[in-house]
Design brief:
The protein is built from 9 helices and 8 strands. It has about 230 residues and is α/β, with parallel strands linked by helices. The structure holds 2'-deoxycytidine-5'-monophosphate (DC).
Length: about 230
């Protein structure tokens, strides 16, 4: 890792990790890496090929066909390329969220993406967000934050976000999906979601975006000054 700083931010889906982490990275001049987007890109390929996400052997056999690129656009926005095609928008479709939860539980998929994630942190100072960054991908990260919020708070945020895009889904549907994904992510055998022993736990239930961002920046700055 050399002189670079690595900040690992882990936590359940919808806790606001990506928007807070991206904004904090911009403020500090770090690169923001959204690892969920990388898992979503692999899953999109599996989805498009019509492979059953529960078929571990078929998913594993398809991995060598996948080439992923990360590029950075305006405002540090991470754009995802799958075999040369920009899939940044498509990976956010709700069916891909559920599909990714299944695909990301396959150990071969996690191994396939490990070196890519580590090399991103080797090149520059990063804020990397995901589920197992502090525990598995970057166990030596100088700063580890475990960001959570109540399932109800996370479902409400997601519902508001989707409503702006014209979804028909009810809050109850979304809450059920949030709880289902939490269950999958925390109960899988391969790299389950859990805080690293040395992580600072931050619960943003009821916090505004600005408040959460300031709290994260304060934790990182405290480390940089130490
Ligand atoms: O953060 P997100 O909602 O975009 O993540 C999508 C899925 O990918 C989620 O179900 C968990 C999985 N994921 C993972 O297993 N490991 C990571 N480092 C990041 C995401």
């Amino acid at each position: 890792m050399g002189k670079h700083i690595a900040v690992a931010i882990d936590g359940p889906s919808g806790a606001g990790k990506s928007s807070i982490a991206r904004s904090a990275a911009q403020e500090l001049g770090f690169v923001y890496v959204d690892t969920g987007a990388i898992y979503r890109t692999v899953s999109l390929y599996i989805f498009d090929r019509g492979i059953d996400p529960a078929d571990r052997a078929a998913v594993t056999a398809a991995l060598p066909e996948i080439h992923i690129d990360l590029r950075y656009g305006d405002g540090g926005l991470q754009r995802m390329f799958l075999n040369g095609e920009d899939v940044t928008e498509r990976i956010r479709l709700p069916e891909i969220s559920m599909f990714t939860s299944a695909v990301s539980g396959i150990p071969e998929v996690r191994a396939f993406l490990m070196e890519m994630q580590r090399s991103l942190a080797r090149e520059r100072s990063v804020i990397m967000d995901g589920r197992d960054i502090g525990t598995v991908v970057l166990p030596e990260a100088q700063v580890k934050i475990f960001l959570t919020a109540s399932p109800e708070d996370r479902a409400r945020r997601r519902w508001e976000e989707l409503r702006e895009r014209g979804t028909e889904k009810t809050y109850e549907d979304i809450l059920r999906e949030v709880e289902e994904r939490d269950y999958n992510d925390t109960h899988r055998a391969a790299a389950p979601l859990r805080p690293a022993e040395d992580a600072v736990c931050l619960d943003t239930t009821g916090c505004t975006f600005r408040q959460s961002r300031e709290r994260i920046l304060a934790i990182i700055r405290r480390h940089m000054e130490a």
